[in-house]
């Protein structure tokens, strides 16, 4: 077959699976559509909530596309206001996380796939 198709609503919500469903939804459809070299994430941060941790990579650059809502993206020590149709490229080693405004925040993340490349950063918002 030359293509794969999945609906994001049918992809497992990893945030809920890991006890973070009150803060956000996080769907990673890589396996659902057979991605071998690309990474894709669909994230919805609930209104007024912030992601409980940040992350960075050794090699994988990311592109974030804001679909709806508004909020703040923290990249290292800088805070950036974001809203619909904003596109943000982030260097691999920059630490990043989002906080939603009162209307929530929905975005997609695209990146090359590097197995084991991500590092979780706790206490990022302090």
Count of extended strands = 8
> For this structure, what is the CATH class?
Mainly Beta
N-to-C span: 48 Å
Global shape: globular
CATH H-level superfamily title: Jelly Rolls
How would you sum up this structure, described in words?
The structure is a single chain. With 126 residues, the chain is mainly beta. 3% of the residues lie in helices and 48% in strands. The protein has one helix and eight strands; from the N terminus they run αββββββββ. Strands 1, 2, 4, 5, 6 and 7 form a six-stranded antiparallel beta sheet that branches.
Please sum up the structure shown.
This protein has about 130 residues and is mainly beta.
Topology summary:
Elements: H1 14-17, E1 24-27, E2 38-45, E3 54-57, E4 62-75, E5 78-82, E6 87-90, E7 96-112, E8 118-121
Antiparallel strand pairs: 1-2, 2-7, 3-8, 4-5, 4-6, 4-7
Characteristics:
126 residues, mainly beta, Jelly Rolls, six-stranded antiparallel β-sheet, two-stranded antiparallel ribbon, 1 helix, globular
């Amino acid at each position: 077959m030359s293509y794969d198709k999945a609906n994001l609503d049918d992809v497992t919500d990893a945030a809920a699976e890991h006890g973070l469903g009150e803060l956000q939804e996080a769907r990673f459809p890589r396996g659902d559509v057979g991605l071998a070299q690309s990474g894709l994430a669909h994230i919805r941060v609930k209104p007024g909530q912030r992601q409980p941790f940040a992350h960075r990579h050794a090699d994988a650059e990311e592109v974030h596309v804001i679909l709806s809502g508004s909020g703040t993206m923290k990249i290292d020590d800088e805070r950036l206001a974001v809203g619909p149709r904003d596109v943000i490229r982030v260097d691999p080693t920059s630490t990043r996380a989002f906080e939603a405004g009162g209307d929530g925040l929905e975005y997609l993340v695209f990146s090359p796939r590097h197995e084991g490349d991500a590092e979780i950063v706790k206490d990022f918002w302090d």
